[in-house]
Design a protein that fits this description.
Elements lengths: L10 E19 L2 E15 L4 E6 L4 H18 L6 H11 L8 H20 L4 H4 L6 E6 L8 H13 L5 E5 L5 H15 L4 E5 L6 H11 L7 E2 L7 H10 L4 E3 L6 H9 L5 E2 L3 H4 L1 H15 L9 H8 L8 E3 L12 E3 L2 E3 L12 H7 L4
Parallel strand pairs: 4-10, 5-6, 6-7, 7-8, 8-9
Antiparallel strand pairs: 1-2, 2-3, 4-12, 11-12
């Protein structure tokens, strides 16, 4: 019986490059707006010649300089070590323990972790989902590329365009306008555009206090949303527990969980009905898999936040996999962006994550920090 073996890898160095990408539909939320999207491109070089790739999206351009410095420090500290993601995850986190796990520490470790998993799966000549014990296939996704706090009268047309971009059966819209009536008008416009059969999610982007959240969430509680996402500040688990008791619509939380322990605490406090970790905050693939075990044991549906390429692979091995958030903001730097067909993200039959940089385009968007 022939055994599948992959070549052991040794970490040589980590290269990290900052780029700024122009968003086709700028972010317009009550907590702020973004037109230029910061991305750190990570290349984990091994002595054996295999390069693992990942990226980070730290929201603020200034944050890139600190993360790149941290990745450089991790590169120096880990040079010569085997590319074993679970080991690197522990070593890297412990090296930053003195400054605390939440925040940039976890984000830097997540970038390293995702690149390490990509390299290891490449060395086995397997797609990451197959390397993790799953199979190549598709993952149901909702389009999250728009429907920010635009004028209600513009929401109908934008919703139609978003649906048609990949024949999506689900879309996310945002709420949190100055007046509740304008949020409701935007919802009505979206429904006019896409009809009753499209699944809709709503995200308040942490913009409400508990009183306003109770008022507004109750006002949309009977509208048929798949979930209501982050109406309160992300760490107000007590407030979320009150909302969970008060609402019929499932409450979604998790893009700001810093590691699996935060997910565990939220579930222990009954602060949410659904979870959607973000890869750079949960701790990359390793952090996700550990969090997925907790969610699976609790029977809680688990969706992704950003990073659709990584998300598609791990959703194929996640027990309570729910929805993948589709955003295409990083597509311009990829040689072959992932495809979406009939609302499903298609995992390519390629080793690792199957991503490579479009170096000509990368050169045009590199920034000095």
């Amino acid at each position: 019986m022939q055994r599948c073996r992959h070549e052991p890898l040794t970490l040589e160095r980590i290269d990290a490059r900052p780029v700024l990408l122009k968003l086709n539909r700028p972010i317009r939320a009550r907590i702020g707006g973004v037109s230029d999207w910061p991305v750190i491109l990570i290349d984990l070089h091994t002595r054996e010649g295999i390069v693992g790739r990942s990226y980070l999206e730290p929201y603020l351009p200034n944050a890139m300089r600190y993360l790149i410095a941290m990745l450089k420090d991790l590169s120096d500290a880990l040079k010569g070590r085997p590319v074993a993601p679970a080991d690197l995850y522990i070593i890297a986190r412990k090296s930053l323990h003195i400054v605390g796990y939440p925040g940039l520490s976890t984000i830097a470790v997540a970038g390293l972790d995702m690149a390490a998993w990509d390299a290891l799966a490449k060395s086995a000549e397997l797609p990451l989902c197959t390397f993790l014990g799953g199979s190549i296939g598709t993952v149901p996704a909702y389009n999250s590329n728009g429907l920010w706090l635009i004028a209600p009268e513009a929401a109908e047309e934008e919703a139609c365009r978003l649906r048609e971009e990949g024949n999506f059966s689900a879309l996310k819209m945002r709420m949190g306008r100055a007046h509740l009536r304008d949020d409701l008008a935007a919802f009505e416009a979206v429904r006019r555009g896409v009809g009753e059969d499209i699944h809709l999610m709503v995200d308040f982007n942490q913009c409400l206090g508990i009183g306003d959240a109770l008022l507004r969430c109750r006002a949309v509680d009977e509208l048929g949303f798949e979930w209501i996402e982050e109406p309160l500040l992300y760490d107000n688990f007590d407030g979320y527990a009150k909302l969970c008791d008060a609402l019929r619509t499932p409450l979604q939380l998790g893009e700001n969980f810093y590691g699996p322990l935060d997910l565990h605490r939220a579930l222990q406090m009954n602060a949410c009905d659904l979870v959607m970790p973000d890869f750079m905050r949960i701790g990359g693939v390793t952090g996700w898999m550990r969090a997925a075990g907790i969610a699976g044991a609790a029977g809680v549906p688990m969706s992704t936040h950003f990073y659709p390429e990584v998300g598609a692979h791990v959703m194929r091995v996640t027990e309570t996999a729910h929805w993948l958030e589709w955003i295409d903001w990083v597509n311009p730097v990829l040689q072959k962006p992932y495809a979406v067909r009939d609302g499903q993200v298609v995992i390519p039959d390629a080793p690792g994550l199957g991503i490579d940089w479009d170096e000509d385009f990368v050169r045009s968007v590199l920034v000095d920090l």
